Amino acid sequence: MSSHKSLDPGAVAGDFFHVEDLLDDAENAVLQRIRTFLAEEVAPHADELWEKGESPVHLAPRIAELGITGLPEDETGTAARSALLNGIVGMEMSAVDPSFATFFGVHSGLSMGSIRVCGSQEQRRRWLPAMTRWEKVGAFGLTEPLVGSGTAGGLTTTARRDGEGWVLDGEKKWIGNGTFADLVVVWARDVADDSVKGFVVEKGQAGFSASVLEGKISLRGVQNAHLVLDGVRVEEGNRLQGANSFRDTAQVLKVTRGGVAWSATGCAVGAYRAARGYAVQREQFGKPIASFQLVQDKLSTMLGNITAAQAMCVRMAQLTEAGRLTDAQAALAKMFCTSRMRETVALAREVLGGNGILLEHGVARFFADAEALYSYEGTRDMNSLITGRAATGISAFV
């Protein structure tokens, strides 16, 4: 058996090609501060919250102190961050707890992103500063009980103009943060012209209700909600002024799909770290199972999957910075990284044998959470068709 002197720190941490070296000193300091927060505030309670099906809402003030929410234009004093730093931070969050990463991403990505991309200057000023400070928590309501992948052309939630305002009717499903959010961005079909419009529904409005979806086996630390909108009256001032078609919605999804690619990579990293740590400690036949060829093959395959996903995500961050990231590129990244994640968490579960299904051994949560990451923000098949359309110039959507 080879000496431990051959240990590669990057291989141990799941950063075999040293992606973190691409960060400058200031960015690395931010990452280390976030790692400390995750280790002290998130990791110790992740299994407990997952088992209880509770979201870490109590951490909102502490998250605000980290200074990683929002952009400089959202609130004075907010530091600028590169797309690479944002991605690596999301990856590290997910490597500790994918539920926490999703809780954070729904608020800072989907909800704030909708207001930032589709809101007027007045609307951005009205909501984004408080959201940057986590004084108001956001949610994003697109998916419906009977409409998932078909949201581009088949929303059943309707918006009807009524005098100076609007009336919303319908249901939404799988809405992360929806049970406790102060602001929910609701996408609805305008009955007058069938266009998709966005609205900000504020907590406590008459006709709006949210109930927790029970019985989930994935991302249990995210409280997904079933929303009912029964004659909810919304002022014109709460209609996102730049959201007039599904193409506007897609602009938000392009950014957040890239975030899911990073999160999926992080989920794979978390499973790999747990499996590798277990393998070097667990003994069978008088020696660590890490010394067995079949176990090393699994760990090598996992590390290859992670490294390939990281490489794609790094290039995606570069394209984002250059303003060149396309919908198809974001779709391919989401499709590829979640597929490699799914294989990686399965291999991690195999390394642990029967212990792989117990929370206490560190892999089971990643194994289960991967299923939600694989499906949300566009299934593998939908993202494949977006990529295929770019590759052929022919749409295969029905």
TrEMBL record:
Q: Which InterPro entries match?
A: ACX4-like (IPR045008), Acyl-CoA_DH_CS (IPR006089), Acyl-CoA_Oxase/DH_mid-dom (IPR006091), Acyl-CoA_Oxase/DH_mid-dom_sf (IPR046373), AcylCo_DH-like_C (IPR036250), AcylCo_DH/oxidase_C (IPR009075), AcylCoA_DH/ox_N (IPR013786), AcylCoA_DH/ox_N_sf (IPR037069)
- Identify the PROSITE patterns for this entry: ACYL_COA_DH_2
**Keywords recorded for this protein, A-Z:** FAD, Flavoprotein, Oxidoreductase
Q: Which cofactor does it need?
A: FAD
Q: Where is the Acyl-CoA dehydrogenase/oxidase N-terminal domain?
A: 25-133
**Residues covered by the Acyl-CoA oxidase/dehydrogenase middle domain:** 139-232
Q: Where is the Acyl-CoA dehydrogenase/oxidase C-terminal domain?
A: 250-390
Q: Which family does it belong to?
A: Belongs to the acyl-CoA dehydrogenase family.
Q: What is this protein called?
A: Acyl-CoA dehydrogenase family protein
